[in-house]
Amino acid sequence: MRNANQGFTLIELIMVIVILGILAAFALPRFADFGQSARIASLQGLEGSLKSSAAIAHSVHLVNGTAVNAQIPLEGLNITMRNGYPRANASGIDLAANVSGFAASGGGGGANATRTYNITGYTAGAGGCNVTYQAANPNQNRPSPVITRNDGGC
């Protein structure tokens, strides 16, 4: 009678472990840092939110026929406007877009006001990691707000 052993030899097991180690060495660096992608995605989301909120507020302004620098009602909130678009401040675009998770700085009620949004708790690199909202100013060839995403330092 012939003795038929079943199972793997030690050499086969070692080869499988070596192959898995090589695969892990190449795959791990690709999946190690999701932080940068997450930061860029959050900036893209904020950029889209600011653009759509400004457009919706402008539409409400046009439909209601309010003055260009008056307040408009938007979902039960009073949004302060400048040149028919939300102002670059807390009672303007911040309120219209319901911004959270970002540290807002700058801005104001003027036509040249620029509000900058940085990711809370993150220090950006040289290229910046923020979104800016520059208020509309028809006198300087900006009939609508200029919204810019800077993600080079994320």
Automatic annotation (TrEMBL):
Which domain of life does this protein belong to? Bacteria
Q: Does the keyword Iron-sulfur apply?
A: no
PROSITE patterns (UniProt xref): PROKAR_NTER_METHYL
Which InterPro entries does the protein's record reference?
N_methyl_site (IPR012902), Pilin-like (IPR045584)
Keyword set, alphabetical order: Membrane, Transmembrane, Transmembrane helix
A Pfam family this protein belongs to?
A: N_methyl
Q: Which residues cross the membrane?
A: 7-28
Q: From the Swiss-Prot or TrEMBL record, give the protein name.
A: MSHA pilin protein MshA
Task: State the organism of origin.
Answer: Atopomonas hussainii
Q: What is the lineage of its organism?
A: Bacteria, Pseudomonadati, Pseudomonadota, Gammaproteobacteria, Pseudomonadales
